[in-house]
From TrEMBL:
Similarity comment: Belongs to the SCO1/2 family.
Transmembrane segments: none
Positions contributing to Cu cation binding: C73, C77, H163
Name of the protein in question: Redoxin domain-containing protein
Alphabetical UniProt keywords: Copper, Disulfide bond, Metal-binding
Disulfide bridge positions per record: C73-C77
Domain Thioredoxin span(s) in chain numbering: 7-198
CDD domains xrefs: SCO (cd02968)
Lineage: Bacteria, Pseudomonadati, Pseudomonadota, Gammaproteobacteria, Chromatiales
Record flagged with keyword Metal-binding: yes
Organism of provenance: Spiribacter salilacus
Amino acid sequence: MPGLSHLKRGLLIGSFALVLLLSGCIGGDYATKGVYGLLPDLKFDLVSETGQRITEADLKGSTVVVFFGFTHCPDVCPTAMARLAAALDRVDQSIGEEVNVLFVSVDPGRDSPEMLGRYTDFFSEYIIGATATEPELREMTKRYRATFGFDEPDQFGNYNVSHPSAMYVFDGSSRARAIFRPADTISDMAEDLRRISGS
């Protein structure tokens, strides 16, 4: 029955086109990677660099960029923070003040609040250091389809930590809007911070 075959093929093509269309609508028009509707809203309960508990409610109304890292990171973390600080410098001051960066340490054994405070102050006043227990951190990273792990310590007790290299961007209503990747330019990151903060 050629007619039925053509009908099925037409329905499949139509369904595939609809999926692509919806994906485009969900992702949004971003210079980086749009993820609107693809990740859960921002939710966390951490200990900040001041030693006080901090949750998503404390940052409500501001654009929040979340990065999972650790202060002993030799390359990925300092590079990411420097790039993000540079992007913030390119954003209008009125908008820049509405952006908070949450540097979430996945190395709670070494990263005390004091250590996090010294680390984040080096890059920008808009970066907040925070951490939690390992089980709490695993729950948070899993929520955003990420993970982390610890290498075996060397003879001096030093070890490396594997962690995501992406930054997760949430709008003032705690909705996931974009992901900044290492390949994204500082200009593109700044452009999307303006777009998200102004929406």
